[in-house]
Amino acid sequence: MALLFVLTLLITVFCSVQGRSFQKTSFEMTEENMEIGSTNNFEEDDQSASSLILKANRNLGQRHDETLVLFGDIAVHPKFINADPCTSRDCKWPKSSDGNVYVPYVISNQYSMRERLNIESWLQTFAKSTCIRFFRRRGQQAFLNITSGSGCTSYVGRQGKAQQVSLSRNGCVHLSVVQHEMLHALGFDHEQTRSDRDNHVQILIQNIQPGLEFAFRKINTINLNTPYDYNSVMQYGRFAFSRNGQPTILPIPDNNAVIGRATEMSPNDILRINRLYNCSGQQE
Ligand SMILES: *[C@@H]1O[C@H](CO)[C@@H](O)[C@H](O)[C@H]1NC(C)=O
Ligand SMILES: *[C@@H]1O[C@H](CO)[C@@H](O)[C@H](O)[C@H]1NC(C)=O
Ligand SMILES: [Zn+2]
């Protein structure tokens, strides 16, 4: 019932997005506003996933080809529009009998040797603290196709066939971004869309770029008994998609709390992977 509601809601969102022709302009205006915000709130060398992704994606609009729609950095096919994959088993990657979860990928030769080595070593960071094992595809049907497309984007959860993960050479080849997009591919949504977010952040609709309000819609996420985490690599910064340089995401009750500055997966991000995928021996 709730699922149906969310689905209907998202389909409505999709249709309204399809109908908007000024979407690209909206993203371009976001860029200016991010820069206004940067004077006080971002450092020059800000390596947080949020800043890097919003910067790399600033010129991305909604792509209508291949019926692909972007929600910030989440790519969605209409038939997979349910962005809450954790409610169903379909979006999870299968667990092998040895307890590991093997996720096949191919990586484009658009990257320099150094970029490829970096990306692949960042994929291996998951093996240190979780049962996720990214490995080079050997004929598997469902796999991540990592390419330098436009911006930093990923589908949420396993799509059952080739699924694009775009890590543009122009701004996405960073540890925080790679971990963020892989967390999407593993089935995780943005922190600020969590079902319990209203207890931790206030969304200031009046400051959101018109037409992008849907990116802040709450999702009926499974929170796996982990707390809301301002330091999650999935948390966007307080000026995300601002129309006017004013905050769009305000932490509450402490409005000055630091949010969206994670430069790598937080202990909570790791815990959630281990809970969602039931990684044994790593539950604590
Ligand atoms: C990965 O995506 C690129 C770009 O769309 C495409 O050219 C390539 O064939 C894909 N690779 C595989 C193995 O599907
Ligand atoms: C999780 O792992 C435990 C112990 O390995 C097992 O008993 C349990 O059935 C698993 N649960 C799921 C949902 O896979
Ligand atoms: Zn994202």
Automatic annotation (TrEMBL):
Gene3D superfamilies: Collagenase (Catalytic Domain)
UniProt EC number: 3.4.24.-
Entry keyword set: Disulfide bond, Hydrolase, Metal-binding, Metalloprotease, Protease, Signal, Zinc, Zymogen
Active site (UniProt): 181
Keyword set includes Disulfide bond: yes
Residue span, Peptidase M12A domain: 82-280
Residues where Zn(2+) binds: 180, 184, 190
Cofactor note: Binds 1 zinc ion per subunit.
Secretion signal span: 1-19
GO molecular function: metalloendopeptidase activity; zinc ion binding
Cofactor annotation: Zn(2+)
Pfam family, one: Astacin
GO biological process, one term: proteolysis
InterPro entries in UniProt: MetalloPept_cat_dom_sf (IPR024079), Peptidase_M12A (IPR001506), Peptidase_Metallo (IPR006026)
Protein name: Metalloendopeptidase
Species name: Esox lucius (Northern pike)
Gene name, Swiss-Prot/TrEMBL: HCE1
